[in-house]
């Protein structure tokens, strides 16, 4: 931890066990360009795991009542955020990674689209 931050925390808290969780997360050391340190990563990871596992309609569930077929799952996994943005907005070009800006874009018609025929009843 940054020595200056440690000194400030020492002046506010009498014991490390008393440090507020949020304060601990935002002051812990980060590595490799991460936004939070190990504690924050663990908490966020656990939160998303619980959200996924608690969602009975999560698309990869193996519940025979609500699960997708292997073909449907493969079709769903082809879709990226960029292809979804292309499909649902008026934009005509998009970068491969929707989170990166200033990178080359390509026409929206080059992104995969869902084949809805896999969901038709016979």
Q: What does this protein structure show overall?
A:
- This protein has 122 residues and is mostly helical.
- It folds into 2 domains: 3-54, no CATH class; 70-119, no CATH class.
- The protein is built from 5 helices and 2 strands.
- A two-stranded antiparallel sheet has the order 1-2.
- The radius of gyration is 22 Å and the shape is elongated.
- The model has no long low-confidence stretch (mean pLDDT 92).
Q: What form results from the Cα inertia axes?
A: elongated
Which blocks of ≥5 consecutive residues have pLDDT under 50? none
* Assembly of the depicted chains: single chain
The largest sheet, given as strand count, sense and whether it forms a barrel, is: 2 strands, antiparallel
Give the helix/strand class.
Answer: mainly alpha
Strand order of the largest sheet: 1-2
Q: β content, as a range?
A: under 5%
Number of strands: 2
The radius of gyration computed from the alpha-carbon positions, rounded to a whole number of angstroms, is 22 Å
Order of helices and strands: HHHHHEE
Q: Can you count the helices?
A: 5
């Amino acid at each position: 931890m940054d020595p200056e931050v440690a000194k400030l925390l020492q002046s506010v808290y009498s014991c490390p066990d008393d440090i507020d969780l949020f304060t601990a997360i935002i002051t812990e050391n980060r590595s490799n360009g991460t936004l939070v340190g190990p504690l924050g990563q663990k908490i966020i990871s656990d939160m998303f795991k619980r959200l996924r596992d608690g969602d009975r309609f999560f698309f990869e569930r193996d519940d025979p009542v609500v699960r997708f077929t292997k073909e449907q799952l493969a079709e769903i996994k082809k879709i990226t955020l960029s292809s979804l943005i292309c499909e649902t907005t008026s934009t005509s070009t998009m970068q491969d990674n929707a989170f990166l800006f200033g990178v080359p874009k390509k026409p929206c018609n080059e992104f995969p689209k869902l084949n809805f025929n896999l969901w038709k009843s016979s």
